[in-house]
Amino acid sequence: MELALKQLSECPEHLETVGLWIHNEWWSKRYDSPEIVLSWLRMHKKLDAVPYSVVALAEGEPVGSCCVIENDCIHRPQYAPWVAAVYVKPEFRRRGIASKILHEAASIAARAGVKCLFIDCLAVTAPVYEKNGWAIHEREVGDKESVVMLREIDSI
């Protein structure tokens, strides 16, 4: 399987697919319609500038994505920018795709002049990020199962 990584601004034809993933996984309890997510993703227009989204394409079809945005943690507004909505289609998981998406997100951040990235995730998922160069920055942020992780961009 050949995997290509692109910024959503380079493949806007996949905006709806990525938006539906985000809506279905995280936003459907707050919003009935995916339109709010789609509107938000339409702001990811510039290459190598926050906000942006990374899309993994297998044989030209989207199989995973993540977003880099100004803030994704209401408990820590002082940190920025944040990786959010890391998603890989279930049938493509455990193939290293999330790792490749995260690495590409960090590479783009370096080109954008970003010094570090943050992510708010469940403690149980922290090992996935740790193997990709992230470190736990704070524990028990927000709810007790959440951690803030940090990725220094200079380490790429």
Please provide a written account of the structure:
- The chain is an alpha+beta fold.
- It has one domain: Aminopeptidase, CATH 3.40.630.
- Helices cover 26% and strands 30% of the residues.
- The chain has 4 helices and 7 strands; from the N terminus they run E-H-H-E-E-E-H-E-H-E-E.
- Strands 1-2-3-4 form a 4-stranded antiparallel β-sheet, with helices on both faces. The chain has a 3-stranded antiparallel β-sheet with strand order 5-7-6.
- Strand 2 (52-58) and strand 3 (61-69) form a beta hairpin.
- Helix 1 (15-27) crosses helix 2 (35-41).
- The protein is globular, with a radius of gyration of 15 Å.
- The chain starts with a strand and ends with a strand.
Fill in the keyword field for this structure.
Aminopeptidase, 7 strands, three-stranded antiparallel sheet, four-stranded antiparallel sheet, 4 helices, single chain, 156 residues, alpha+beta
**Coarse morphology:** globular
The total strand number stands at 7
Rg for CA atoms: 15 Å
Unreliable spans are: none
Specify the helix fraction band: 25-40%
Count the domains: 1
Looking at CATH, which topology would you report? Aminopeptidase
The order of strands across the largest sheet is: 1-2-3-4
Percent of sequence in beta strands:
25-35%
- Along the chain, the helix and strand elements come as EHHEEEHEHEE
CATH architecture field: 3-Layer(aba) Sandwich
Major sheet, described briefly? 4 strands, antiparallel
- Cα distance, first to last residue? 25 Å
The CATH superfamily label reads Gcn5-related N-acetyltransferase (GNAT)
What is the overall pLDDT average? Answer: 91
CATH class: Alpha Beta
Total number of helical segments?
Answer: 4
Class from secondary-structure proportions: alpha+beta
